[in-house]
Write the structure tokens for this entry.
Amino acid sequence: MTTIRENLEKWEEEYLSPYATLSKNSLGRLRDEEPCDIRPVFQRDRDRILHCKAFRRLKDKTQVFLAPEGDHYRTRLTHTLEVSQNARTIAKALRLNEDLAEAIALGHDLGHTPFGHAGERALDRVCPYGFEHSEQSVRTVDVLEKDGQGLNLTFEVRDGIRNHQTKGNPATLEGKIVRLSDKIAYLHHDCDDAVRAGILKETDIPQDIRETVGRTTGERLDHFIHDIVTNSSGKNEICMSPAVEEGLKKLRAFLYVNVYTNPYAKSEEGKAELLVETLYEYYLHHLDKMSPEYRMLMERGEPRERVVCDYIGAMTDRFAIAVYEEIYIPKCWPVK
């Protein structure tokens, strides 16, 4: 009897673009396992990511603004959901594999540190093995989740996660969609958050950028997505028109100067980096204070410096601050 999964795989073969990555053609997993009778492999990967602990922790990790006072600023989780929505919209319009694009998008930042790129810089500085969130995201799904067993994801999802940054070169068109969706998501919401914080006014964005890619955050997001779909349709590549791609680069350069390195927006990052570095030195000399699953990694031969990075990198902003206070901040003497 034909399974639901096999029917869905047949539908993909008949309906999706000839350039799509078909579930039945996946290069497989790190460890062989029985296929699901309902879900194709990329849908199964999506579900594993959605239910893992690292995904849930994203809700308390910084996107750009550290500990913002307000309910509407983006976190690493809401960023991830916006990337996923952009990627699904583009993949569906191009008849590419929406499940694969969604799985990559949901997993692309699982290895991000507390305090955003400030935490990443701190761990990269102190760890002899270096630290990069894209590689850490792959390590999270391969090694750290499920008490050291990993999620055993497909090659295509792991490749897309590893290569989602600008320097990456994903092996699939769906991975290339996520790579661009990540950029347009953070440019969109970082503009929006900066305006909300009073750091920018919409009219501060140079006129040539606004004329090319849109005069509001909503217009720009819509324009970027339509441009990618229009210019990638029927092609074995994911691309933007030269004018819009240049507008995207100019907008990013503008935000780098006015938001990403803005002294007001980034005034607390030095403290965050010092906190992360201090925790790294503490746990390097107090390995017994880490959770058992991390100590188990060292018993399997993992170097302690890498495992300490794993432990601190997995922390949320709130937990990192609480641990720091527990270790280093004197407590008041109780009055009887």
